[in-house]
Design brief:
Preprotein translocase SecY subunit; 2 domains; about 5% strand; globular; transport
């Protein structure tokens, strides 16, 4: 197995891969610098004093984690990429019920470009509404930091936040197109990583007993290993290919395997679920005098509370099934297999093969969905056992799943470039790319 240093040298030798990685790092640096630009009309010094006195936990604290701290700093990137993800969810839901969008999804690249364009327009509209809610909340909680008339602040905040989200969306698309990895996921991940050093330092200084801290690190390591194991877990279905004689050559006659991942949806369900959890609090900000909406907002912003954990768990399980149904098409797999002369032993080609694959997929998705839901609410259990809220978010939940999922996806893309140039990747035994000798 090649050493990490050797793999890094191989990466640097490939000009295209080196350029892609440097481009990605440059875009991420631009994003991090932009997260420190404050909205017009805000006194950053006064706002920092107010934030030091207020509770920065709950759902808003989690949102602040995703946008790299820009939410509480009242930055132009305060809403981050979440409006774009919400728009993507809407169109994927519409694709399941509207024939017109289903038709576009089946039209290949042209249909995807059309849906992407509509998603961008929807992102602007959603950001407009969320920016108004954000400005109202900022006025209510940190009004002393606003040094311009209210009408000017609201107008500039809506324009700046909308422009900031569109710019972040554009940065993510550039990473996906010219960089390495999924740009949207990497932007979210870099915001989460920015909080890890401070959270780790606070946890160390906050523990009087070093042994307890070491137990927490060990538990975090085990949880991370378990997440990696389930994320990479597959159910392999044997596929037999019939022999074909073409001239003097014989093709086929071999047994291969169709890998079905336990977590075929990846990190997307928990990102989708997190976006959905922001909707009730956004509506609650529009009705500050409504007892009902304030109760709903409170219940859906306490990330360590019972109702938040229950709702979040259910939404994660639902979106795991939903996204798996979108990402994996058993009928298409069966048709491709039949065209290539392949069949599953004991199963007839065609409809029965499609039903067999769908049955297996449903069975393995169930534990995968429960796993994602459990990991999503694991920070609540960590906080219950005395872990500080900031560090508890890395024991599971959205933070850990995003970090693991995005890291594995990026490593797979890097290794694809390495293998195309006949270099060994990070792991020769196949844990990352499932390669077998």
């Amino acid at each position: 197995m090649p050493s990490v240093a050797e793999s890094l040298r191989n990466i640097w030798r490939i000009h295209e891969l080196r350029q892609r990685i440097l481009f990605t790092l440059g875009i991420l640096i631009v994003y991090r610098l932009g997260s420190y630009i404050t909205l017009p009309g805000i006194d950053a010094g006064i706002l920092e004093q107010i934030n030091a006195q207020n509770d920065q936990g709950g759902l808003f604290g989690l949102f602040n984690l995703f946008v790299g701290g820009a939410f509480f700093r009242a930055g132009v990137f305060a809403l981050g990429i979440m409006p774009y993800i919400t728009a993507s969810i809407i169109f994927q839901l519409l694709g399941a019920v509207m024939p017109a969008i289903q038709k576009l999804q089946r039209e290949g690249d042209e249909g995807r470009r059309k849906i992407t364009q509509w998603t961008r327009y929807a992102t602007v509209i959603i950001t407009g509404f969320q920016s108004v809610g954000y400005a109202i909340n900022l006025k209510a909680t940190s009004g002393a930091a606003i040094v311009v008339p209210d009408w000017l602040f609201f107008a500039s905040a809506v324009i700046s936040l909308t422009a900031g989200t569109v710019f972040v969306m554009w940065l993510g698309e550039r990473i996906t197109e010219k960089g390495i990895g999924n740009g949207i996921s990497l932007i979210i991940m870099i915001g989460i990583i920015a909080f890890l050093p401070a959270s780790l330092f606070n946890e160390i200084t906050g523990k009087a007993n070093l042994f307890v801290f070491l137990i927490e690190i060990g538990a975090l390591f085990l949880v991370t290993m378990f997440v990696v194991l389930v994320t990479q877990g597959t159910r392999r279905i044997p596929v037999q290919y019939a022999k074909r004689v073409v001239g003097r050559k014989v093709y086929g006659g071999t047994t291969q395997y169709l890998p079905l991942r336990v977590n075929a949806a990846g990190v997307m369900p928990i990102i989708f679920a997190q976006s959905i959890m922001f909707i009730p609090s956004t509506f609650a900000s529009f009705f500050p005098d409504s007892t009902f909406w304030q109760g709903v907002g409170t219940a859906t912003t306490n990330i360590f509370g019972f109702w938040y954990s229950l709702i979040f768990f259910i939404i994660c399980v639902f979106f795991t099934y939903f996204y798996t149904a979108i990402a994996v098409n058993p009928q298409e797999m069966a048709d491709t297999m039949r065209r290539q002369g392949g069949f599953i032993p004991g199963v007839r080609p065609g409809r029965q093969t499609s039903e067999f694959i769908d049955t297996i997929l449903t069975r393995i998705t169930f534990p995968g969905a429960l796993f994602i839901g459990f990991v999503a609410i694991l920070p609540a259990f960590a906080a219950y056992f005395g872990v500080l809220p900031g560090f508890a978010q890395f024991f599971g939940g959205t933070s850990l799943l995003i970090l693991v999922g995005v890291t594995l996806d990026t490593l797979q893309q890097i290794e694809s470039h390495l293998l195309m140039r006949h270099y060994d990747g990070f792991m020769k035994t196949g844990r990352v790319r499932s390669r077998r000798r």
